[in-house]
Amino acid sequence: MALLNFRRKETAAPSGANAAVEAFLKGYSIEVMPRTAEKVEDFRDLLPAGTRVYIAHIDGTPIEDMVATAKRIAAEGFPVMPHFPARIIKDKATLADWIARYQGEADVKQALLLGGGISKPHGDFHCSMQLMETGLFDGFDRLHVAGHPEGNKDIDPDGSDKNVMDALRWKQAFKDRTDAKMAMATQFCFEAKPVIKWVNRLQAEGIDIPVHIGVAGPAKLQTMIKFAIACGVGPSLKVLQKRAMDVTKLLLPYEPNEFITELAAHKEANPDFGIESVHFFPLGGIKTNATWAIENGGASAVPAAQA
Length: 307
Prior knowledge:
The chain is α/β, with parallel strands linked by helices. It is 37% helix and 15% strand. The chain has 11 helices and 8 strands. The chain has helices spanning 19-25, 34-37, 63-75, 92-106, 128-133, 162-177, 192-204, 221-230, 237-244, 257-269, 286-295; strands at residues 29-32, 53-55, 80-85, 110-114, 142-147, 181-189, 211-216, 275-281. It has an 8-stranded parallel beta barrel with strand order 1-2-3-4-5-6-7-8, surrounded by 4 helices. Helix 5 (128-133) links the parallel strand 4 and strand 5 (142-147). Helix 8 (221-230) runs antiparallel to helix 9 (237-244). The longest helix is centred in the middle third of the chain and has 16 residues, at 162-177. The two termini are 30 Å apart.
């Protein structure tokens, strides 16, 4: 199937697309890194107009590369949301410099604030809450934070979710006392039922920050397992391990159809369910992920509520 060209017109979802899945995928976002973005000639050939593109900042990536990537993707017409990992930012002056570069060169107005994947901070910051407290993001339209449906052992080494939940309560209070548009972009998962349970628990706790559920895009099973282990994916990893034991599926690529279909059906039956959007991690490549999304009805523009 040839890639649809979104430069000419907005293309309707395929006629065979599941209506619930199409609605669930509407306004999805996707994540890139500077080195993966370089492999894409033009994002307009791959993504629906208005798709939010997160730019992951891996430790060691020069800020110049991050800003250049943001500038290039923004110039192609997409809202960009760079990562600000607290533990790789030396101090407030460095943070202010990064923000000034993003705003000056790429008109960035959205940011994902997170702790970051390293154990020892490079400087003054160790968590996203400290970044939020600087006041340097006051002019931004959107501030997203990280979510962990299966917990995070870096934050809660004892296997509980006490610290994670305390942090979410703090972020909820920040949302309540400011005019920040917020959402929670989560780690990718592979099993719907624990995610549904987690989102319902957030709502029961009074945490109404919309969830943008992390979804691993299509990839070879071996690739998926490697990334899942490296990223600390929890109990739902067993979905991949079970698949790996089936020799008839071992060589087939993993696709998130079952995971998304189950969540979409739950959202359709429960409109107030806290998942607002899907956030793709294109582990098998941006083009592969974008093609899968198009073929499954994800060819709709970002809803106004998420703009």
